[in-house]
Structures are given as C-alpha cells and as structure tokens.
Amino acid sequence: MSRKLLLENAHIEGIRYYDVYRKNGGYRSVEKALKMTPEEVVEEVKKSGLRGRGGAGFPTGMKWSFIAKPEGVPRHLVCNADESEPGTFKDRYLMEFLPHLLIEGLIVSSYALGSNTTYIYIRGEYAWIPDILEQAIAEAKANGFLGKNILNTGFDCEIYVQRGAGAYICGEETALIESLEGKRGNPRIKPPFPAVKGAWDRPTVVNNVETLAAVVPIINMGGEEYAKIGVGRSTGTKLISACGNINKPGVYEIDMTISVEEFIFSEEWCGGIKNGKRLKACIPGGSSVPILPANLLLKTAKGEPRMMNYESLADGGFATGTMMGSGGFIVFDEDQCVVKNTYTLARFYRHESCGQCSPCREGTGWMEKLLLRLEKGQGKTSDIDLLWDIQSKIEGNTICPLGDAAAWPVAAAIRHFRDEFEWHVTHAAEAQT
Amino acid sequence: MIQFSEEQLNKVSEIIARYPEGKQKSALLPVLHLAQDVFGWLSTETMDYVASLLKIEPIEVYEVATFYTMYNLKPVGKYVFEVCQTGPCMIQGSDDIIAYIEEKLSIKPGETTADGMFTLKAAECLGACGYAPMMQMGKYYKEHLTKEKVDAIIAECRSDISVNN
Ligand SMILES: NC(=O)C1=CN([C@@H]2O[C@H](COP(=O)(O)OP(=O)(O)OC[C@H]3O[C@@H](n4cnc5c(N)ncnc54)[C@H](O)[C@@H]3O)[C@@H](O)[C@H]2O)C=CC1
Ligand SMILES: Cc1cc2nc3c(=O)[nH]c(=O)nc-3n(C[C@H](O)[C@H](O)[C@H](O)COP(=O)(O)O)c2cc1C
Ligand code: SF4
Ligand code: FES
C-alpha cells in the first residue's frame, strides 16, 4: 500500500466543498505558513526536495529562491493548469475532485513568493472546471483565507482563473505568459526566465497544479519528513494518469518506490493488460517521452527492475531509457501498431507547433506526411532514414522544447521498433488494410 | 448590431479588473469566450466590437482569434461533436467512432449538417485519455463512447432534451 498525501481524502463525499474539506484538516497549512516568514516557507519547500510536476522536474524550492525582488515591482504566481500533453489527465482530476487542495497550496505559495495577485491558467477545453475553482475561491474568501488581510496577518491575496482557448503550446510557461497577456501563444527565448521577467515583465513563478498542491503536505508535515518519502532525488508522491490497454485506467498516487511491473500488473494500480493480452510497449511520461518496448520497460539495460521514479525511468538515457515527464502513462498491448500511434503523435505536434521556428514548423509537417505514407503502406525504406534524419535536425534547434517533444517520440519509435516500420514497407498490401 | 447587454458589459469590466492597470488587453481571451457564448461565433464585426471594448487594434484581436482552435471563425451547428483522435483515444477505437458519426450524420469532420444541428470535428487530446474514446460537446465531455452511446446522444440532441449531464 503506497502512501497518499494528495488523494488521501479524494473519496470523501462532498470534499469539493469548503465545510467538508475544512473538517478533514483543510487549510491548516495556511494557518501554519502565515505564522512563518516567507523565506522560512521557501526553505521548507527546498528541504522537501519537491521537483516540478509539470514535466521538467526542476527543484521547486530552488526556483522560488530565484525569484527577483526589485523594489516596488509586484510579483506573480501563475498556476499552470493547461494540461494538454497526450496521456496526461492528473491535474484535471485534482481540480475536479479536490479544488480546495489546489487553492490552499496556492495561498501558501503566493505568501512564500509575495504574490498578491495569482492566476490559474487552465486549458479552455476544461470548460466546466473554472466554475468548480471559482466556487472554491469564493468559499475560501468567505472564510478569511483569501482577500484582504488574510488571518489578520496583513497578507492580501486574490486568485483569478483564466481559460485558454485550445493551444497545447500555451502549457509552455513563456507561451502561457504571452497568452495571459492577451496574445498568441508564441514562446519567448529563455533566459530571462519568468522568475526574473515574466507576466507584464514582472517576476513570475509558473508552477504546475500538482506541484502547488504538494506544498500543502510539505508545510503540514515539514520539508524534512516529506523528503523521507520516495527514493533519492525522487521525493514525495507523484500522480500518474494511466491509460491505454489496461484493466483499470485512472489517476493514481504513488510514492515512487514501486516498480513499473507492480504498477502495471498489480490490482492496486492498473490491474494488468486488458483482455488477457500481452504488454507490448509503454510511453510512461506523456506523449513526448520515449516509448519503450516491454523488456526495457520492466528492466533496465543492466537487468535491474525499473522503478517508477525520475532516475530509474531515465536510466540508460535515450538509448535504453525514457522519462518520468508529466506522468501520463500510456500502455500498449500486443495488437497495437507503433507506426500508427507515432503518426497520431506527429500529427498532434504538427497541429500544435506555433510556427515561429522553421525546424519545428517544417519538420513536424514533414514527419507527419512521411509517417502517414508509411502507415498506409505507401512508404519506402528510405523514408524511415529520412524520418530519422529530420527528427535529428529538429532537436535542440528551436526556441522551446516543443520541437524536441515532437522529435523524441519519432526517434524512440524507430530506435526500438524499426522492424515494424520496415514491415509496413515490405508488407505494403497488408499495411494498407 | 453586435452589442453586449448591460450585465455582460459589467462582466467585461470585472474581467478587466483582474489584470494590472493599463493591461486590459490581457482580458482578450476571456472576453472572446464571452462573445462566442453570446453570439455563437466570432464574426469580423464581433471581433471589431471586442477590440473597441478593450481599446486595442482590431488586428490584435484577429491575431488571437485565428491562433486558438476554440474560437469559431464561421458559424457552427447547434451541437458540436469534437471527437479526440490522438494516440490514447485512437488505440481505444476513436477512428470507428468518428466513422460512425460521419455515416450517421452524413458529414465529414469540419462539416455541419444541412439543418444546422450538428458539426463534427476531429480534435487532439482533450485530457480524458483514461476514459477513451471520448468527445467534447459544448461545455462538457462525453466519455467511454460506444456506437450505442453515440446513438443516444444524437437522439437526445434531436429531441432537444438538455443533454449536459
Ligand atoms: N504537463 C504537460 O502537459 C506537459 C509537460 N511538458 C514537460 O515540460 C518540460 C519542458 O518544460 P520547460 O519549462 O521548457 O523546462 P525547463 O527545464 O526550461 O524549465 C523548468 C522550470 O524551471 C525553471 N528554471 C529552469 N532554470 C532556471 C533558472 N536558472 N532560473 C529560474 N528558473 C529556472 C523554468 O522557468 C521552468 O519553470 C518537458 O520536460 C516536458 O516533460 C511538456 C509538454 C506538456
Ligand atoms: C510544449 C510544452 C508544453 C507544456 N505544457 C505544460 C502543461 O500543460 N502543464 C505544465 O504544468 N507544464 C507544462 N510545460 C512545462 C512548463 O513550461 C513549466 O516547466 C512548468 O509549468 C513548470 O512547473 P513545475 O516546475 O511545477 O513543473 C510544458 C512545456 C512545454 C515545452
Ligand atoms: S519549437 Fe515549435 S512550438 Fe516552440 S517556439 Fe519553435 S515553432 Fe513554436
Ligand atoms: S488522447 Fe484522447 S483525450 Fe487524450
């Protein structure tokens, strides 16, 4: 049984509402944090070892300590709820079922960063969730946890929800900031990082929904205690959204000490492969991380069991490993076609490229066309090499990592499943059906 | 004449007040959502009206309205089915669902039925991969789709019962 810190109370009837949430220990972290100095709160988060849950895994406490504090310039916290990475639906679950946990985390984090106006930027398609969040915000405000002079400490804070309008790229933090400013979501060149120059050129910290929710248990239990959960630099718990050909798709909280095998086959989690089929492959961290065949997924190249944590998933680099990414865990059974799946992902990235950089704009379109041709049994062997060549020229040559995110799945699919691509060429007639 | 009601104008002021003084352009995305809710789609006239409300140039509105997929730049049907077709939904049969809707309504993705009732769109991952196949319909999601469920949804729309959960 894995320890739960975020979803512990998710099953409680009415937990979406303030009274029930409060009765179950809600908002204690605000009471505790507001008696500390903001620096002490940052220090607890540093000690916790918490790493950003949006995908990049950057240490949250360190990011917070980088926020610039020019005299007289307001600072902002922005919650990244744009969640659009295929396979990822954990933030939606948190916001839908435990909206107060996010709001509580946002209040504590806003205090730590000195943000008096905090924004939640949520993907536009989650159109019913802003109502849930705004209700939670209103309840928190009515109970003195938001608004002016919170708990008589002199700290003021307002939280506003802004909806996006259908653009995956707006999950990239600088594109998100552009969008918040009422513009197209074109990523900015970093540095400067948002922590120095963000929304309206003010110091801005952008954090994922799950990261900000995790601040609540960290403050409640103390950073050191939190850091004891998990292993190595993978501290605390992680939400995994599991989907694909498994018996029990859904959102799970794990403590990063379990193996991938347990996660897929245990009744506590995914419950095994559907219809008694065999496991073929898995994309464990959202569509942009490398796909792994079953053998490399369950065991590292060194033959050790692969564990559900940042280090173990990345073991072997891109040659034999993958990444934790956003925790979007996509499982494929033996009947699934890697070429077709890779084609849908290429189409996704072509659709979502903002078009600023030519390697990304042109490369994603080209990859999509080649993959469609191969998938339809109309490709040549040289198309596979061309595909490899194109992806290698996108990586590292663009303003934001969407280019990399588009290149990696293609590279990994060819690396591990080249025979399947070749089959589509040599068995053209069968591939066409 | 494109014109918000008194109440809607108050909502616009409330949205503008969420952003720093002088940064009312930041209200553009939410105000476009509001305009689309009220007028059904974003005509040039509507976009120009939004520009005047936020005191920005019309081109700044067109730029944004054309970038984001959720803004409709032409009229759509009363019910819009946006079926997700990305990997995780594809491996759970989204292609069949799209084909079934195409056949049932005699339209292709991107088209609207002659009676103006239904628009079909193929969408990319909507964050419901564990409940696949799925589609967005207006404000809500319809998940775990089957042919029978599609039939039921279409029948409900036709009989104009409130279908939103
Ligand atoms: N959750 C989702 O739906 C998706 C997540 N992703 C993930 O996003 C990741 C890439 O995100 P990026 O923000 O481009 O990664 P990044 O590594 O550039 O930055 C990570 C965070 O650390 C901060 N940071 C890094 N160095 C800093 C410094 N010196 N000073 C201050 N702050 C600093 C950045 O501002 C950012 O907030 C990918 O690894 C991918 O897994 C990608 C697509 C979708
Ligand atoms: C193309 C692209 C899309 C992204 N989408 C998201 C997203 O939907 N949600 C998210 O939290 N981070 C997303 N990120 C990562 C953010 O840029 C940023 O690293 C993150 O919000 C920081 O929060 P964290 O430190 O709490 O993880 C994306 C990055 C890229 C390159
Ligand atoms: S890499 Fe792609 S999405 Fe990112 S800025 Fe360049 S063109 Fe835009
Ligand atoms: S792939 Fe369809 S909702 Fe994610």
Automatic annotation (TrEMBL), chain B:
<keyword id="KW-0479">Metal-binding</keyword>
<feature type="binding site">
    <location>
        <position position="89"/>
    </location>
    <ligand>
        <name>[2Fe-2S] cluster</name>
    </ligand>
</feature>
<dbReference type="GO" id="GO:0098662">
    <property type="term" value="P:inorganic cation transmembrane transport"/>
</dbReference>
<dbReference type="InterPro" id="IPR002023">
    <property type="entry name" value="NuoE-like"/>
</dbReference>
<comment type="similarity">
    <text>Belongs to the complex I 24 kDa subunit family.</text>
</comment>
<dbReference type="InterPro" id="IPR042128">
    <property type="entry name" value="NuoE_dom"/>
</dbReference>
<dbReference type="GO" id="GO:0098796">
    <property type="term" value="C:membrane protein complex"/>
</dbReference>
<dbReference type="InterPro" id="IPR041921">
    <property type="entry name" value="NuoE_N"/>
</dbReference>
<dbReference type="GO" id="GO:0051537">
    <property type="term" value="F:2 iron, 2 sulfur cluster binding"/>
</dbReference>
<keyword id="KW-0411">Iron-sulfur</keyword>
<dbReference type="GO" id="GO:0022890">
    <property type="term" value="F:inorganic cation transmembrane transporter activity"/>
</dbReference>
<dbReference type="GO" id="GO:0003954">
    <property type="term" value="F:NADH dehydrogenase activity"/>
</dbReference>
<keyword id="KW-0408">Iron</keyword>
<protein>
    <submittedName>
        <fullName>NADH dehydrogenase subunit E</fullName>
    </submittedName>
</protein>
<feature type="binding site">
    <location>
        <position position="129"/>
    </location>
    <ligand>
        <name>[2Fe-2S] cluster</name>
    </ligand>
</feature>
<keyword id="KW-0520">NAD</keyword>
<dbReference type="GO" id="GO:0008324">
    <property type="term" value="F:monoatomic cation transmembrane transporter activity"/>
</dbReference>
<dbReference type="GO" id="GO:0031967">
    <property type="term" value="C:organelle envelope"/>
</dbReference>
<dbReference type="GO" id="GO:1902494">
    <property type="term" value="C:catalytic complex"/>
</dbReference>
<dbReference type="InterPro" id="IPR036249">
    <property type="entry name" value="Thioredoxin-like_sf"/>
</dbReference>
<dbReference type="GO" id="GO:0022804">
    <property type="term" value="F:active transmembrane transporter activity"/>
</dbReference>
<keyword id="KW-1278">Translocase</keyword>
<dbReference type="GO" id="GO:0046872">
    <property type="term" value="F:metal ion binding"/>
</dbReference>
<keyword id="KW-0001">2Fe-2S</keyword>
<dbReference type="GO" id="GO:0031090">
    <property type="term" value="C:organelle membrane"/>
</dbReference>
<feature type="binding site">
    <location>
        <position position="84"/>
    </location>
    <ligand>
        <name>[2Fe-2S] cluster</name>
    </ligand>
</feature>
<feature type="binding site">
    <location>
        <position position="125"/>
    </location>
    <ligand>
        <name>[2Fe-2S] cluster</name>
    </ligand>
</feature>
<dbReference type="Pfam" id="PF01257">
    <property type="entry name" value="2Fe-2S_thioredx"/>
</dbReference>
